[in-house]
Amino acid sequence: MVKQRFGQHFLIDQSVAAREVDYAHITKDDVVLEIGPGKGIITQLLAQKADHVIAIEIDRRLVEQLKTTLAANVTLISGDALTVDFKTLPQFSKIVSNLPFEISSPITFKFLASSFSVAILIFQKDFAQRLVASPGTKEYSRLTVGVSYKAGCRILENVPRSAFSPPPKIESSIVELIPYDTPAFVVENEQFFFKLTKQLFNHRRKKIHSTLKSLYGNIEQLPFLDQRVEELTPEQIGRLSDELYRLS
């Protein structure tokens, strides 16, 4: 018996697994990447529909079990998905995964740095709500801004705790992520934009003027100084980033 490790909650509901795979509209032309195959419930469905499946599993005990059950068109990689160089993998067209919850944010941004057409992902419900949040809500965050700059995102359905073993503390959600061909809006320097977004959300309840003055000095000509970052749209944060970048 494999104990839970690495924050994995194994999907055990076959109908949920089938719907997640169906959302990806996989054909025999697709190469699919799966992170955290666990006991293989999603992997087996993917293998039936795709040309090839690349599954990355960090738990070596699970890898040994999976080796005896997976189809011939599955490449099983034993390793940490956060450190595996995606550029060394066969070019994948889609991503389908029930993700270990504690890597949700870094693996999402790693996905968005690679090339694919669609990702269908299971996240904790609160994380999924942050992905699609609107300005002015408590869920709106640096994550929201960073992902919306790179991709379109929507929640497809919520998944009950009982669909997993062991059951997580809260519900989960199946999320669709479709990367844009080009970012949703143009910024002069992406690195500066992401840095500024982080700085502002670290002090989300402060007026932008208070946060930026302590970091950058003379900022009196900038827009939105009397507002809080949680009130700004991603595009407005991009505009603020551009104007501050020109001053720096």
The CATH superfamily of the largest domain is known as Vaccinia Virus protein VP39
The number of distinct β-strands equals: 9
User: H/E series, N to C?
Assistant: EHEHEHEEHEHHEEEHHH
Put simply, the count of helices is 9
Q: According to CATH, what is the class of the largest domain?
A: Alpha Beta
Lateral strand order in the biggest sheet: 4-3-2-5-6-9-7
N/C terminus separation: 57 Å
Strand content: 15-25%
Question: How many domains in all?
Answer: 2
Q: What is the correct CATH architecture of the largest domain?
A: 3-Layer(aba) Sandwich
Structural class computed from helices and strand pairing: alpha/beta
Query: How confident is the prediction overall: mean pLDDT?
Result: 95
- Largest sheet geometry: 7 strands, mixed
Q: Roughly what percent helix? A: 25-40%
CATH topology title of the largest domain = Rossmann fold
Task: Give a structural overview.
With 248 residues, the chain is an alpha/beta fold. It folds into 2 domains: 170 residues, Rossmann fold (3-Layer(aba) Sandwich); 58 residues, Helicase, Ruva Protein, domain 3 (Orthogonal Bundle), CATH 1.10.8. 35% of the residues lie in helices and 20% in strands. Strand 3, helix 3 and strand 4 form a beta-alpha-beta unit. The longest helix has 14 residues. It is elongated.
List the main descriptive attributes of the protein structure presented here.
248 residues, alpha/beta, Rossmann fold, Helicase, Ruva Protein, domain 3, 9 helices, 35% helix, elongated
